[in-house]
Specification:
This protein is an alpha+beta fold. The protein is built from two helices and nine strands. The protein binds iron/sulfur cluster (SF4).
């Protein structure tokens, strides 16, 4: 199995700092791959990245929510969305994204498409 970074990712980068096998990389080009991604061929499923994510974006593959219920106000980050996000990474570097959308309170979204996107990035 592997862990999966979902579209709740806003490129904080703290996850890649703690990964013991360097399985986590920033998507590039950002317009096509707007989040970070985990290489399923090297991930050892240790779970160290999960608590590092301030956006709670990382799940074991078999626990990625098909029906994620939004708290309200959190952003999803996917190709095809047009909302702006300007923030800071774990290291204080500027993060500027143009592929986000704020979720409404109680809105339900399927985060499982991230499974294929993680694999596509490394294919
Ligand atoms: S679960 Fe462990 S090995 Fe896999 S990406 Fe996260 S930190 Fe790296």
């Amino acid at each position: 199995m592997t862990h999966i970074i979902t579209s709740l990712c806003l490129r904080d980068n703290g996850c890649s700092d703690v990964c013991p096998v360097e399985s986590i990389n920033a998507g590039t080009p950002v317009e096509e791959f707007p989040t970070y991604y985990i290489d399923a061929s090297t991930c050892i499923d240790c779970g160290a990245c999960v608590p590092e994510c301030p956006f709670h974006a990382i799940y074991p593959e078999d626990e990625v929510p098909a029906a994620y219920k939004a708290i309200g106000g959190e952003l999803i980050n996917e190709v095809g969305l047009a909302g702006e996000y300007n923030g800071k990474s774990h290291h204080g570097e500027t993060v500027a994204l143009s592929t986000t959308r704020a979720l409404a309170t109680g809105e339900v979204v399927d985060l499982r498409k991230a499974i294929q996107e993680n694999r596509r990035f490394y294919s």
